[in-house]
Amino acid sequence: MSLQHLQLKSLSDPTWIDKYIHEMGERSFWGYHRWVYDTLDNLKFGEWIAVEKWANAEKIDLFVKLCCCYISETNYDYEFNADGTILKHKFDRNYYQPLLDRLKAKKYETIVHSTEEICV
Question: Considering the entire predicted model, what is its pTM?
Answer without folding.
Answer: 0.67
